[in-house]
Amino acid sequence: MVKIGDIELGDFPLLLAPMEDVSDPPFRKLCKDHGADVMYTEFISSEGLIRDAAKSVKKLDFYEYERPLGIQIFGNEIESMRQAAEVCAASNPDIIDINYGCPVKNVACKGAGAGILQDIPKMVKMTAEIVKAVDKPVTVKTRLGWDDNTKYIVEVAERLQDVGIQAISIHGRTRKQMYKGEADWSLIAETKNNPRLHIPVFGNGDVDSGPKAMEYRNKYGVDGIMIGRASIGYPWIFNEIKHYFEHGKEAKKPSVKERVAAAREHFELSLKWKEERYAIMETRKHYTNYFRGLSHFKPYRTRLVTIEDPSEVLATLDEIEQEYIAKYGNEQDLGDLNNLQYGRTTEKQTI
Known about the structure:
The chain is an alpha/beta fold and 351 residues long. The protein contains 14 helices and 11 strands.
């Protein structure tokens, strides 16, 4: 049984990665419904939280059904991060998570996110202060290092454990790599196999199918897997991985009706939770993957990413369902998930 503190997560938990403009409450609900074991919020600015900025405070919102849930914070000032952690703890999440992995320039180059990988002593000190400030388990999401010459993750994980973190999630790339190239899980495995490390180690990077999750679980020995880009517009990924673990074969892909229903639910939840224009804009990034593999879909996709009226979005989704079932049937082959290309994500959107 994998545990973060006293929180039981099952034998091999699947975690939804914290992703800016992606892992908000509407999307988290779909992922929870489709098998995600642990949820994380979008990352939240420590400076925004302690100044009571509306956008930052709103990101603290979550629902009881999402538990266990972690609130993730980022920043480059130790005192601001300590205070922000206290604000987060007051919202009563299950976990406080620290973002030491975001590679985006306007975060990392200010010493926050992956930027702190250039100052490991400060990283350790900041973590220690946050652990002392809250009565919740503290976890960390980070990368292998700043660049190929600073892959100190084995030592870093040990030092962070020594100041009190309860788990670590490691993205198998450096900050310099951003999201390019193949994730290197060998150092994640080395971290997990460090005899001094006793906290859970979760791997992150490039897992997009049941077979790959099985391969990485067996080869690298991690305690669980964090799924990021492969879940965007495809919340089914979590249950598909679990199905493969249990049955040794891939699950049946979601039908046209199921895909439309998920896209509709996502959009309607977004309309309820955020301003209309943000709901319209932020849901757009998911449509490519919700409907990946549908024949002749480009005209519909163009409409979905340009429509400004919510009623037109919903009408278009209804039209997609009706037309595709009439022309091709509900069970049209929707392509090979092993060749998924993650849709229209950007550096800003994926943390």
